[in-house]
Amino acid sequence: MKLSRIALAGGVAASTVLLIAGPAAAHVSVQPVGEAAKGGYATLNFKVPNERDQASTVKLEVNFPADHPLSSVTPQAVPGWKIKIDKSKLDKPLEVHSRKITEAVSKVTWTAEDSEIAPGFFQQFPVSVGALPEDADQLVFKAIQTYDNKEVVRWIEEPTEGGEEPDSPAPVLKLTAAADDHHGGGAADDAKKADDAKEGDDHKAADTAASTKETSAAASSSSSDTTARTLGIIGIVIGVAGVAFGVLAGRRRSA
Predict the structure, then answer these.
(1) Is the pTM here over 0.85, yes or no?
(2) Are strands 72-75 and 81-96 parallel, antiparallel or unpaired?
(3) How many helices (H) and strands (E) does the chain have?
């Protein structure tokens, strides 16, 4: 009986921990696919869990940081969701690939059409972004989640270093160190790798062609030597035969 009470008390305590920890962890978050290196490009997943038992999520708004504007923001299509992209003018234009960018994406909104996030489920919303800033360690994306019962949850509180997690924390993207070329990987690295691979293939092709040429020349030289030797031997045989014929003819005349 005593052991049963202890087990029951332990079960209740564990359930209480799960109930407390569950809602605290169920908030909109952002995670990169791979790394999000400074100065590079990355694909981000905005993960949206449904916290309510009696309502479904039908809308997500993600605000992009104005203090570190991104020159490229491309959402991936999500079946059953309509995407709206808002842009704003930049106070200071960005210099990207030798051209000036005067506006950047300020907000992306996903609205459910033929789909929704039901209770007990989550949905990911992928976005390709870049170039990530080189002078920041993280980016904060303030998000707003709307349910079909008109409830709105604002995930906009910025966490502080060493402080407790806010009740409604904003999604935070941690940036990793830039690559050696200071571009943080991404499309630039892929292009460089492709060029290096092509250059290597060109060198291999040139070496192969030179080797083939040398082999052909050697084969041709060998063939010429063989022909000359054969003709020489034939000439010697014919000469010997001629001499022999002459000797025999002289003997016959003498006789």
Answers:
(1) no
(2) unpaired
(3) 2, 11
